[in-house]
Design brief:
By secondary structure, the protein is mostly beta strands. It has one helix at about 5-20; strands at about 30-35, 40, 50-55, 60-65, 70-75, 85-95, 95-100, 125-130. It has a six-stranded antiparallel barrel. A two-stranded antiparallel sheet has the order 7-8.
């Protein structure tokens, strides 16, 4: 059996047309620069203000400075492990922490992760880190 070049070409064209890879460069960026717990990340065009970002090594970032070409990110965790050139992924979640009775008496980090060794916090709801406080009239008076 002998294959003709036209047959090979048609087979390749068919396979290429059927090949579907979903890529979205707006969802993954690259660390350009790092220092003192702050990273500059290229890409992430769709990142929102105060959006949580995922780095390798379990490091979490908070997008705070959105510019045209890059994003300034505050790093939480062992940020010294983050290096230039490594990938950064969007989570689509705004930074929030657990709230309610389950949080009373607990010790947590700025992201709401328990640090007191008493296990996970069983909070029913969360609230964004940046939350507008009630107006002075709506608050209880100081006693």
């Amino acid at each position: 059996m002998k294959l003709r070049p036209e047959e090979i070409t048609s087979i390749l064209r068919e396979r290429i047309e059927q090949y579907d890879v979903e890529t979205d460069l707006a969802e993954v960026g690259t660390v350009l620069q790092i220092g003192d717990g702050i990273a500059r990340v290229y890409g992430l065009e769709n990142a929102g203000s105060l959006e949580m970002l995922e780095f390798e090594h379990g490091v979490t970032g908070l997008a705070f400075n959105l510019e045209e070409d890059d994003v300034g990110v505050a790093l939480f965790g062992e940020w010294a492990k983050v290096s230039e050139g490594e990938p950064v992924r969007r989570t689509g979640r705004v930074a929030s922490v657990p709230v309610g009775e389950a949080l009373l008496g607990r010790v947590v980090d700025p992201l709401g992760t328990p640090l007191d060794g008493r296990g996970a916090i069983d909070a029913k709801e969360t609230r964004p880190l940046e939350f507008k406080a009630p107006g002075g009239i709506a608050r209880q008076p100081v006693k």
